[in-house]
Design a protein that fits this description.
mainly beta; Jelly Rolls; six-stranded antiparallel β-sheet; four-stranded antiparallel β-sheet; 38% strand; globular; disordered N terminus
Length: 175
Amino acid sequence: MILPGGCGSDQKETLVLFDFESEEGLDQLNWKCHTLYSLSSQHAAHGTSSLKLEMYPSAYPGLSPVLTRRNWQGYGAFCFEVYNPMPHPVLLSLRIDDKKEALEYTGRYQKSIQIQPGANSIQIPLESLKTSETLRPLNLNTIHRFLVFMVNPGIRHVLHLDYFRLESFMQEVPK
């Protein structure tokens, strides 16, 4: 389940995973072909900078940061902010692995997220992190990686990403 609205700033505890406030933040990214990263002062959701992500036509362009905080136990939600400057929605994929070895699609969490034009707050309840087909709950003590990417985009897409974090509690979503 992906909830609209995002995580609130009034939460009891926040663990910031990536916030892209300095050039050192770029060193935490796994660089790959057909994807460009740069810091931008535009569309920052937290602090003064966001990550400008340019994805070019290829199989799976996107973001794959080097995750050093692997124990997500005790948190309620994985949250991040995305700004879509394009006039149409963009479909992103989110993948989360709890094992180091490359996993088949059936052994990892993977969901598609429709990113609307403008600002988007993404909130993923950690209790919903289950493998795609077997529905095995991910081991929150051993999160190895997460990836945010597109599948075979036919044209160049630009997004601004910011404030990847774990929140202790999820914000209530208005009904």
